[in-house]
Design goal:
Elements (H helix, E strand, L loop, with lengths): L6 E3 L2 E9 L3 E8 L4 E8 L3 H20 L9 E7 L2 E7 L5 H7 L7 H20 L2 E2 L8 E3 L4 E5 L14 E5 L4 E3 L6 E2 L16 H4 L7 H16 L9 H12 L4 H4 L10 E2 L2 E2 L8 H8 L4 H6 L6 H11 L10 H5 L2 H10 L1
Antiparallel strand pairs: 1-2, 2-3, 3-4, 4-6, 5-6, 7-12, 8-11, 9-10, 13-14
Length: about 350
């Protein structure tokens, strides 16, 4: 519990509630010493959340040690314990990519902006992976624009008969600069992990099938995010494991048999005779319809991307390979023509 104007520390004054969440809340505060607004993440006074917060602080301090300019990840200012709540002080940033999309009526981003955002995201992932860290929860909610500023431009794709003046305009960020946040679930990439990670829509197949995961699960999440930036909507909108796997097959083709043969005991029910047990084991007709309405990846992208479609489709196919051992790495993805041709064009 806290009140407007309350001092969390002698230098930190509470201004407004910025963001409520499962872990706790983010407060907008005034730092009297640096004379700037900061974001203070106040973690719930529960053991598992406190432990996650301390892990996040360790990860942030390691990242900050090697990212002195703070160009990739959100910067931690300091942290303190307040009434048994771990409080982490961050630099103030703009809205998340998800919030920007939501306030923009889920309109897709132009492909040139997708290119800039994708490059920065992969640079951050490559930086983390070089430090043996796996983020494990990459999603549009955890990627923030540095600046909240945006411009409104006419949206010529809106039907002429639309009566809403607001619908005739779309927002574009003034700056494409972004930073990744939320390192509470960060894991050691040199260890073999089996527990469930990632928010559902961005969860890799090896995680669902219980095959163990490492760095490549971040790469899968990046692929899902880039599709969402191109289309405006999450690629796999489901909350059921079997339906999720069926959606993957619908968009990307059949899951490899060598992966299905190695599923753990919890995922055995999704497989029958070496194949995904779909649609026979579907939970409902609506579930089958939800899968069947999805187009192939290349068709989905081409519905929204005017130019560079071939390049980004090829990149996405590398990021969304089923087998994590053949999936692109962050460094190899950054060398893809989707990024290098843009550099050539600007030179």
């Amino acid at each position: 519990m806290f009140a407007l104007g309350e001092n969390l520390t002698p230098r930190c004054n509470f201004i407004s509630l910025f963001l409520p969440g499962t872990f706790g809340q983010v407060l907008e505060c005034w730092d009297r010493e640096t004379r700037e607004m900061v974001a203070v993440k106040v973690v719930r006074s529960i053991k598992k959340y406190r432990e996650a917060a301390m892990s996040e602080i360790d990860a942030l301090q390691l990242l900050g040690k090697y990212d002195r300019n703070g160009s990739r990840c959100v910067q931690i200012r300091n942290w303190f314990d307040y009434r048994n709540h771990i409080c982490i002080v961050f630099e103030m940033l703009g809205p998340s990519i998800y919030d920007f999309l939501r306030k923009n009526s889920y309109r897709p981003f132009p492909v040139d902006l997708v290119r800039e955002l994708g490059r920065q995201l992969l640079e951050c992932v490559a930086f983390m992976h070089d430090l043996r860290l796996v983020h494990t929860d990459l999603k549009p909610e955890n990627i923030l624009f540095v600046s909240p500023d945006y411009v409104k431009i006419p949206d010529y794709k809106v039907p002429v008969h639309s009566f809403s003046e607001a619908a005739c305009y779309k927002r574009l960020p003034k700056s494409s600069a972004i930073k990744v946040i939320d390192f509470g679930s960060t894991a050691d990439g040199h260890k073999h992990h089996n527990y469930i990670v990632s928010t559902r829509h961005y969860r890799a197949p090896e995680v669902i099938l219980g095959l163990g995961w490492s760095y490549s699960c971040d790469i899968w999440s990046v692929g899902c995010i880039l599709v969402e930036l191109c289309t405006g909507e999450a690629l796999f909108q489901t909350h059921d494991n079997l339906e999720h796997l069926a959606m993957m097959e619908r968009v990307l083709g059949p899951l490899p048999q060598q992966m299905l043969k190695r599923v753990d005991r919890h995922a055995e029910k999704y497989v029958r005779r070496g194949r995904l047990d779909w649609p026979d084991n579907a939970t409902s007709r609506d579930s089958i319809k939800a899968v069947m309405k999805l187009p192939r990846l290349q068709n989905l992208v081409m519905q929204h991307v005017d130019h560079s479609a071939g390049d980004i489709i090829d990149l996405l196919q590398g990021l969304l390979r089923y087998d994590p051992s053949t999936r692109l790495t962050a460094h190899s993805a950054l060398g893809h023509p989707f990024f290098s041709r843009d550099l050539y064009r600007r030179l």
